[in-house]
Write a structure and sequence with these properties.
The longest helix is centred in the first third of the chain and has 17 residues. A two-stranded antiparallel sheet has the order 1-2. The model has no long low-confidence stretch (mean pLDDT 94). The protein is built from five helices and two strands; from the N terminus they run H-H-H-H-E-E-H. Helix 2 packs across helix 4. With 94 residues, it is mainly alpha-helical. It is 63% helix and 9% strand. The chain starts with a helix and ends with a helix. The chain has a single domain, classed as Arc Repressor Mutant, subunit A (Orthogonal Bundle).
Amino acid sequence: MIGEKDREKKYWWFMYLSLFLVPNTKLVLRWFATQATPPTKEYYSEFWKAIVAESKLREVMLMVLIHHGLVVSEGPVLKVSQNGRDFLAFIGDQ
């Protein structure tokens, strides 16, 4: 069971993320949450190439999501984490 301090900590963490993450990065997180089968890193890069042409920027967006615990990398497979789903619910996307 989550305590009051943990809820407050999560609230402020999500407030920070809602300001820190640029719209395209939030869009990528939403995309991960809608995938029936977790995509590979290669599929992610290929899919988003049409929207974010620069490969370095696609890599940075992915690393930001992983670094902040919103997406997890299990070998070549990428999955939205429970924390990522909770964040999407926080910003009204799930």
